[in-house]
Fold:
Amino acid sequence: MHTVLMVILLFASIFMIVSILLQTSKSDGLSGSIAGGAEQLFGKKKSNTYDMMLSRVTTVSSIVYIVLVLAIVTVFN
Structure:
């Protein structure tokens, strides 16, 4: 049982790392503050975009990761 939970934990951590690395940056740096201020105010809706899907994958995988870590620590220690 411990090995199965550790393998699931490994996959959850890999999914979390990949989904975080594939997301676009939320800040534009200095160039965004000069030129792209209007896009933040009147930008496109991101409810059904690739970034929103990656954000949901990140959220779900982080919740699974935390639950598995807590389960492994409480049950097997």
Observations:
- The radius of gyration is 18 Å.
- The mean pLDDT is 82.
- The chain is about 80% helix and 0% strand.
